[in-house]
Design a protein that fits this description.
CATH topology of the largest domain: Uridine Diphospho-n-acetylenolpyruvylglucosamine Reductase, domain 3
Number of helices: 15
Distance between the termini: 27 Å
Largest sheet: 7 strands, antiparallel
Oligomer: single chain
Number of domains: 4
Strand order of the largest sheet: 13-10-12-11-15-16-14
Number of strands: 16
């Protein structure tokens, strides 16, 4: 019946590229989690909206589940196809479709890489400000599906703030044209916003209209060495009050050790418990003087141990590499990842509590911290010891994640800040959402995807 169904799909859409080789199934059937063995039915690679609609209609009739796929850089198992699903890869739908100079709106297909969007924006003298280390491989469709944030959320917000309109193929194959780039639209429910962050469970994004903005004024990058968590929060408050921050990213000496082993260069001598890479506007001499004054005050208060101010673009890039290179440097160690958030005001108490929690629960396991202090987002990477089997390591980490989820619930936080829920975190959704909210999510899912074919098992159990 499987072969018959695929033959029917090919007959309906004779121009559709369909991959069934073992290497392709493995490549397109997984994301960066690497925890599940990929086992997709096949890989469909549509080149048009009409082909996406045709695939969805076929899937409804043949009762085949679909896993939408972009750059597959996700860390929550949201793009995993391990149960015979059809992977619908949007890799061929990767073009810029147009630019409206009046509305400053760039219209793109979902498979285009974030970096290509940023380059297209710069070509118009503008910027698309959402940014993070995976910019060269992640896709806009995936960014929308997870409401991706990144390193400059403190200044520009998440992906959600930059989506003017979406075209989406719903679970029944119907094409929805949502918001159409309007700035003001009070004509009922904004389904555009509902699709953002829905992880491909309600519809498949097939076109996006992205808002662009002016390039920021000249900025400077500073690396700070800090003695403890308390000092980090004091420095954040100080710098936010004195400067116009674009980014405020922290990492630990443990994280730095891995990045240095991966080829980066140490910028501050000695070992320090915590580091911050901060970027701030420095368009004139007054702004630069304010930055130096803030730094000196931090030194006097004992909140800052040492620091480096980038003197060139090359040095700024080298400082940023110390933060952005962490994820890549940890990959060989098969990290178990937690991506959590709390209100910035709740961070000090939350950080103190989870420091004790992680030290108690992982006494012999290396834990690497880094994240976005400016928006309350913390990444916790637990590195697998060689002495533990994969199954035992995952079991231990899942036990600790439940404790972490309980802690987040007490502090009003979220088990997923920017990576989505996927397969990894669905068991902990109730720590972030009430039973009433989850019930409404199921109702919404049924309305947009009545046969439950879109990314089943992700987000909702």
């Amino acid at each position: 019946m499987t072969q018959q169904a695929l033959a029917e799909l090919t007959a309906r859409l004779p121009g559709l590229r369909l991959l069934t080789e073992a290497g392709d199934l493995e490549h397109y059937g997984r994301d960066w989690t690497r925890r599940w063995t990929p086992a997709p039915l096949a890989i469909a690679m549509p080149a048009s909206i009409e082909e996406v609609q045709g695939i969805v209609r076929w899937a409804n009739e043949c009762q085949v589940a679909i896993v939408p796929s972009g750059g597959r850089t996700g860390l929550s198992g949201g793009a995993v196809a391990a149960r015979g699903e059809l992977v619908l890869s949007l890799a061929r739908m990767n073009r810029v479709l147009g630019f409206d100079a009046v509305d400053r709106m760039l219209t793109v297909q979902p498979g285009i890489a974030l970096e290509a969007v940023q380059e297209a924006a710069r070509g118009q003298g503008l910027i698309y400000p959402v940014d993070f280390a995976a910019r060269g491989s992640c896709s806009i469709g995936g960014n929308i599906a997870t409401n991706a944030g990144g390193i400059r959320v403190i200044r520009y917000g998440n992906t959600r703030e930059w989506i003017g309109g979406l075209k989406v193929v719903a679970g029944n194959g119907e094409l929805l044209d949502l918001n159409r780039g309007l700035v003001k639209n009070s004509s009922g429910y904004d389904f555009r916003q509902l699709m953002i962050g829905s992880e491909g469970t309600l519809g498949i994004v097939v076109e996006a209209s992205l808002r662009l903005t002016d390039p920021p004024p000249a900025a400077q990058v500073m690396l700070l060495a800090l003695p403890d968590m308390h000092a980090m929060m004091q420095v954040f408050a100080l710098f936010r009050a004195r400067l116009t921050l674009q980014a405020f990213e922290f990492f630990t000496e443990v994280a730095l050790k891995h990045v240095l082993a991966h080829g980066a260069q140490r910028a501050i001598e000695g070992n320090h418990p915590f580091y911050v890479v901060t970027e701030f506007e420095a368009a004139d001499e007054r702004a630069q003087e304010a930055a130096l004054a803030a730094f000196e005050q931090g030194l006097e208060q004992g909140w800052i141990s040492d620091g480096v101010l980038a003197q060139s673009d090359a040095q700024a890039a080298a400082l940023w590499r110390l933060r952005e290179g962490i994820t890549e440097s940890l990959a060989p160690h098969k990290p178990y990842k937690n991506d959590v958030s709390v209100r910035i005001g709740a961070l000090p108490a939350f950080l103190q509590e989870i420091q004790s929690l992680l030290a108690r629960e992982y006494p012999q396991i290396e834990v690497v911290w880094f994240g976005h202090i400016g928006d309350g987002n913390l990444h916790i990477n637990v590195l697998k010891p060689e002495s533990l089997s994969d199954a035992d390591f995952i079991a231990q980490c899942e036990h600790v994640t439940q404790l972490l989820a309980d802690t987040l619930q007490r502090h009003g936080g979220s088990i997923s800040a920017e990576h989505g829920i996927g397969l990894v975190k669905r068991a902990y959704l109730q720590s972030t959402r009430s039973a009433a909210e989850i019930a409404l999510m199921r109702t919404v899912k049924a309305a947009f995807d009545p046969n439950g074919i879109l990314n089943p098992g992700k987000l909702l159990i």
